[in-house]
Amino acid sequence: MSQQSISIHIFMSGRSVGMLMSVSPLLTGSPLWSKEKLKPIVVREGVSLVLPCEPPAGLPPPLIFWMDNNFQRLPQSKRVSQSLNGDLYFSNVRREDSRNDYICYARFPGTQTIQQKQPINVKVLNLDSINDTMAAFYNDTDLFSEAPADERMPSFLIPKGRHSSKVVLRGHKLDMECIAEGRPTPEISWTKDGSDLPAGRTSFLQFNKTLQIDDVSDSEEGVYRCTASNKFGSVHHTFHVTVKAAPYWISGPPSNLVLSPGENGVLTCRASGKPKPLITWTKNVMPIESLEDDTMKVEDDMIIFRDVKTSNSAVYQCNVSNEFGYLLANAFVNVLSEPPRVLTPVNKKYEVIRNHRALLDCSFFGSPIPNITWFKDSRSSTLDGDSYSLHDNGTLEIRISRPRDSGKYTCVARNILGISENHVFLEVKEPTQILKQPEYRMIKRGGPVTFECKVKHDSSLIPTMTWLKDDEELPEDDRFTVEPESLTITDVMDSDAGMYTCIINTTLDHVSASAELTVVERPDPPTDLELTDQTKRSVVLTWIPGNEYNSPIKKFLIQYEDSLHHRGHWHNLTHVPGTRTSANLKLSPHVHYTFRVLALNNVGWSQPSTPSQMYKTDPAAPDENPTGVQGLGTEPNNLIISWKPLTRLQSNGPGLQYKVMYREKKPGSEWITTNVANNSRFVVSGTSTFAPYELKVQAVNNYGEGPEPAVVVGHSGEDVPKSAPTELRISAHNSTAAEVQWKTVSNDSIRGFLKGYKVHYWREHGIHRHHPDRVEKILTFSGNRSHAVLPGLHPFSDYSFYVRVFNGRGEGPPSTTKHFSTPEGVPGPPTSLVVSNPNLDSLTLQWSPPYDPNGHITGYTLKYQPVNNSNELGEEEVLALAANETSVTLPNLQSSTRYRFYLNAKTKIGAGPAITQEALIMVDEAMVSRQVDIATQGWFIGLMCAIALLILILLIICFIQRNKGGKYPVKEKEDAHTDPEFQPMRDDDCPFGEYSDSEDHKPLKGSRTPSNGTVKRDDSDDSLVDYSEGGDRQFNEDGSFIGQYSGKTTSRDTAAAEGPQSSEAPSPINAIHSLNSFV
């Protein structure tokens, strides 16, 4: 490398002065910069400056960057920036731009090497410094006599002039650059005449000095304007941009062509460019123009084939070119004669998910190109329409597959040489669905969590479920248990937090669902407690929150310990929101404070923090007086003053006492003062009875007194009232209530706090009966009452009462006793109601008068009505009875009917409540039982048939015996029978009545037994006594029997008198049923 020339350049103008020293070496050999040291560049402050880089040439061009000796990039800004050619431009220089290590580096991508230029030394001086410096070199000659570089309007350093042109290729990158000098530093802006800059492809680089547009299209052609401006003015430069284009395909390169002999075809090579490209064709590298072939013709960008032959099979090339580039494409033309062939495998099965797209292949080959048609199942019609789409390659597309689309499909390929077909099968499956997705879970650390993922799928598909955590496989950990429809994690840790996804895959589809797991825990205790802003009565406590474990802290609790008065006990002081980390604490005097902080989140409270340092407050006089001051006496001559004592925290210092002050509330009274320590009460003796006193209690300690206390009024002890109410009056509201009135006593005679009045009253006796045992009742009425109502009185009775006043000490003397009577009222119910003498159609009712007549009885009202088995009531009958009556007989009642009776008494005031009774009207049920109950029983009919058959056999035997002259043995037995209960049946009862068995005298199953357990006579005057063994029978008041029922054995005479009915011996069970039926 040899040095050819060294030159020094000095720039001087009216606006700027600069000196550029550069070395222009002649480079030979490899591309390297000159190693000769460059002379310093000295410039005046405020002028513009350009540091050239001028790297060696290279392919591709090198990448340029400026750095210092420490390999740090030099800072760039709107004032200092690098141009596209690598030079470093200063819009105006400053003193801080002075440095000796401006180094330009070039990185050559081809060789992956970096070359550096020799460092450039720049010195920025003001005018005086430049003159002094240059005089030393040039014999004290004043080189710079002009004024210093002042502020000025912009001018362009690059590009030069006001207009320039640029040519850019379509699809390439367009770069336009404007760098201006001026002071202050100019602002650069860009516009395009007539339109906006293309959005999404426009970039502003180098602090707006470079406009870059990517992927240029024809629309980017036009005029662009660059404007540099500062407060002194602006300048413009316009770029006329022309877009050229190398050839490019419009519809893609030509496609291969398969023809059969005699067919026509076209090869198209459609391309464009700017300028318009030239298109040439070759056949097997030979220009088509040189070939004599009447089967093909070139027209612009096409080759047209007519009536092709096998000789037309060749490789055709299309060449598209202009001055900016070219395109070259090959197309194969095959002239074949082949019948159709379907290449898709036979009976191929396709599976698709419902509502998805189905593609059924029908790959084919043939020349001429076969025509493809599709059929489903029976070949009734071709498949076309909106639901189907036939692709050029023969594929049938079913846009939305439905279950009905399942089945057999036939693909048929036809051309002039033949036909070919193939069958495929389609099965439409149900989609896989997630019925229950995993849900977001927030779990405390250490607990278990389960994510559910329940799916529904086609029965013919086998799903596989995979779980992912944060889109990765689950960790290898025994705590993770994967079940068929769930994932369970035990002993959850912080690292388990994340997004969990269940993925269900089948051979045809897959679905997935995700849920997040958040692991929470109680927060860690706060740390670094610090006390700041300390005063006598306040301090600021600050802290650093602990880890909140995914659950935000809701609040902080500040506690304190008073080691002076209550060591070891922590007290709650205040709460602050969870967003704060400090609190201004109000303090009390004479306390040794230690603080700690607890944090609360949704899981719970943290452990307490480490206590803060101790903070002691100085003693002071009390800030407050005791509360709850009151004065009450326990005796008529004393006054007890009491209060709620202050706590140790409230005492503010040692030596706490209470200054008690009192005086009687009357003119001229003086305050009496005494000090009380270690107590919360003071007793004043020798007072007047129930006298008002003014009271004050003040807190005092060794450092002073508390604030002036408030005055409280109290009273000395009470005594019982000394007067009684007077002027008693009574008025009855009704038969059960009366109003009492009295005149209240005077306040002086109460001698205490009035509590109220008490009314003592009692019932002397009723009008109809005497009550020798007096029962006194007391009603208490609070306050200064002068009247009261006495409730719950008995009608038609004499009463006495008196009134007392009472206070906190007790009751005063009684008033005079006054008497009064209550008016009549409605009577009570009759004492009893008894049913007696029930017959077939009548009965007798007996009753007793009311126990509480409550007046003069004026009569009775009897109501009765029938009741059926479902408790429905029939028509009601009403009967008015005299006051002196106590019984009544009701005739003409319905037999076998239950009746309900209501009886009440009346006074002149009205009717009282009723007493209720029910009774059943009985009949002779033996006949009814035989005629109805037994005759309708199946067992009875069968028994009768058996007896009839037996008698028929006996008759036959009897007839035979009579014919023989012998005696009928049964008749002999009948004649010899002496049983008094034996009762022969009459001929008109039954033809078989002369035969009887002891079983016939027992009640038949299903028959009803009379209520007294015996068969009743037909006569209506039968007595109940006739059915008992003894002559005496006892009755209850309601007419029911007392004792055990038993049947009565009748004689032959009685049986004969009663007619065809037979006597039956009652059983104990029947007797019980009879008793229940009667009652």
From TrEMBL:
The chain crosses the membrane at residues 939-960. GO terms for biological process: axon guidance; brain development. Gene3D superfamilies: Immunoglobulins (2.60.40.10). Residues 25-121, 154-242, 247-334, 340-427, 431-518 form the Ig-like domain. It is found in: Cell membrane. Residues 525-620, 622-719, 724-825, 829-926 form the Fibronectin type-III domain. Its main location: membrane. Pfam families: Bravo_FIGEY (PF13882), fn3 (PF00041), I-set (PF07679), Ig_3 (PF13927). Residues 609-634, 970-1079 are annotated as: Disordered. SUPFAM superfamilies: Fibronectin type III, Immunoglobulin. It is a single-pass type I membrane protein. One of its GO terms (cellular component) is axon. Residues 970-989 have a biased composition (Basic and acidic residues). Keywords: Cell adhesion, Cell membrane, Developmental protein, Differentiation, Disulfide bond, Glycoprotein, Immunoglobulin domain, Membrane, Neurogenesis, Phosphoprotein, Repeat, Signal, Transmembrane, Transmembrane helix. Belongs to the immunoglobulin superfamily. L1/neurofascin/NgCAM family. This is Neuronal cell adhesion molecule. It comes from Oryzias melastigma (Marine medaka). The lineage of its organism: Eukaryota, Metazoa, Chordata, Craniata, Vertebrata.
